[in-house]
Amino acid sequence: MGIPKLMDHSGIMSTMPRSWQRLLDGVGLTAAAERVYRAILADPRASPATLAEAAAVDAAALPELCELLRGLGLIDTEDDGTARPVDPRIGMSALLRRQQDGIERAVAAVTDLTDDFLDGQTRIGASPLTELVRGRHHLETTIRALITSARSEVAVLDTPPYAAANSIEPAEEFSLESGVSNRAIYAAEVLENPELYDNIRKMTAAGEQARMLPEVPLKLLVVDGSRALLPITLEGDVSNSAVLVHPSALTTALTALFEALWAKALPIFDPVGATHGPLDPEERELLGMLASGVKDEAIARRLGISNRTVSRRVNRLLERLGAANRFQAGLQAARQGWLEG
User: Fold this and answer.
1) CA-CA distance, 221 to 148, in Å (whole number)?
2) Sorted alphabetically, which Pfam families does this protein's record hold (predicted)?
3) I need a labelling partner for 296 at 20 to 30 A (CA). Which of 2, 140, 152, 204 fits?
4) Quick one: average pLDDT of 80-108?
5) Architecture of domain 130-265
6) Which residue ranges make up each domain of the chain?
7) CA distance to 76, 160, 225, per residue, from 208 (Å)
8) Closest CA to 83 of 28, 43, 56, 55
């Protein structure tokens, strides 16, 4: 019995639904091989002629496509040449494990390849410690690659000018989903950028630890404490080149700089599920901005309230903390653990 043909949207007879097409290219199957595989799964007793017709492939190409599937462990071939499917729960799982092993070996080889690259750079007189990244596209690609390659931590210093938040957001989400720690310190001016501020809130909800300082001295990305990226030139309001720093004493120093600033910075938002003494989330946000030196006007815009309301809330916080001024209020709240991120 053959496989029923279905009418596609163009009115042309198709051997299989559109939802079946090109779903397995990520495991090494061509479009034709995938169609043959699905045809075999749907009708294990189909003859070669029926399979070729159902999969819309040339009958002469069928043996080669079946050999590809057999080599991947997705089908077996009987003595008479008839193809029989392996249960996908077994065949596909084994294939994916082999591919994962290959990926892990390739990742392990990156260190050796990097050593070869640095040796080559030394031979041509280039610095083995740094690499110049030119152009916005190359820079964004490098940032995404660094973040997605992180094994333990991504650390970021961010200060104006700000680029579009969504350009590297998928890479950040990938690293967080992979269990990588993400810490970021933002300049207080981030409050002037509603889009970026909302993005920070979103990433914090996803697991990023975000803190703020009145001023952040430079833009910086450090991955796993061993590689760093420092933007060096600007085109309009966006960085268009940077220095990529390879493992060295310089990356160690940049990591130490980040840690020193992190110790001084205060959290922007509550971590998920956190409780901090008598402060509610809005009070914590307000106090965090105060301690970071944010002006009343910016706080009012950020919270959507008037300057007078900001002043009233600040005075209430000072009374509750027994603080003489805003900076002292921030210190006392931090000492009591109300602002820990």
Assistant:
1) 13
2) GerE
3) 204
4) 76
5) 2-Layer Sandwich (3.30)
6) 6-84, 87-128, 130-265, 281-335
7) 48, 20, 17
8) 43
